[in-house]
Design brief:
The chain is of the alpha/beta class. The protein has two domains: 225 residues, 3-Layer(aba) Sandwich (Rossmann fold); 161 residues, Glycogen Phosphorylase B (Rossmann fold). 35% of the residues lie in helices and 14% in strands. It is built from 15 helices and 14 strands. The strands form two sheets. It has an eight-stranded mixed β-sheet with strand order 1-8-7-6-5-2-3-4. About 7% of the residues have low confidence.
Amino acid sequence: MLEVFLPRSSNHWICHRRTTMADLIVFGEDWGGLPSSTQHLISHLMKRHRVIWVNSIGMRSPQLSLRDIKRVFQKMMAMLRRTGKPAQTSSEQITPVIIHPKVLPFHRLKLVRQLNKRLLLKDINRAIDQEGFDKIILWLSLPTAVDLVGSLNEQASIYYCGDDFEGLDGVDHKMIKPLEQELAEKVDLILVVSKTLARKFTHPNTIILPHGVDYPLFSSPAAKPHDLPDSGPIAGFYGSISAWLETDLLVQSAIALPSWQFVFIGDIKTDISSLQALPNVHFLGAKPHNQLPSYIQHWNVAMLPFRNNKQIAACNPLKLREYLASGTPIASTSFPAAREYENLVAIQSPKEPFSRVILRANDQREEKANRQARVSTESWQHRATQLEALINHLSR
């Protein structure tokens, strides 16, 4: 059920199904990577709505680093591709029209913003004409797309806020904050994934749409991968291995539990040398999203070892519900999203060693059915159905 933060009657958002579906123009991350909440939701909506998807417009100015230079090169190569649909991977899969944005990553400069807007409008309007888009709803997951609101003859616009960008690592916070404030004032509807994020906005039409989960994927039994350790119980984590992980806490846990194997899956974006020095810690690299269930289902404990900071306080990690859907016991540091499932997750108490939290979680292995049942009705399809009701209302 949607949680509505409106001073008006909640009946304001009661709506009726229409036979004419709105067309969607979506500004999100790059299509085709590890799916974000935006990709999950839009993938379900594409069964009934046509979609033009604009790949990521960055949220910071590039630096003179190898990583940023590589990212700029990848973006430049993408710009040279023609707008269109990616290759279909199966006869049943529906894909959007993809636009690789030709923009300069210097959003603090007014002239650059004006130039970027003209370049984007040229490509998007061409795609609109080619696809015959008519009743357009604009969906923005990134504040850097704010200048497009009101420029595409859209019927309505939505800001989907899935993160607290002011606390997000790797984001130009001084640049993003005013852009987000400007965006929040322009759009017709703000969707947020948590109560913490809802408190950021005074917009009267701010609605909480929690994350979902691909329950069939994560709950269906999968074979054990060959690259998992063969000896000892396994405590695992998948996702971006970034500065928001409590590295010291993990080092202490791996030392305190020498018979356990600690497995990490994902791209490495922070210093992990202290973990790499330990014989029972393993980094397996990034894996495709559809392969993750085969790993987590064969862990003894899944970990959420996050730091206590502003970003984590506002986050609603997709992996939390994916962990629950797999049935695997969960050991977590304390943050709001985890505490919503505190009867099913072993949550670290003040000054408690995380190694003890892992052991407490392992003792909960018989509660697999309860963990899975808790999220069995929180599918992405269910969230998309709720979202479509809102979109149908906006396009009336």
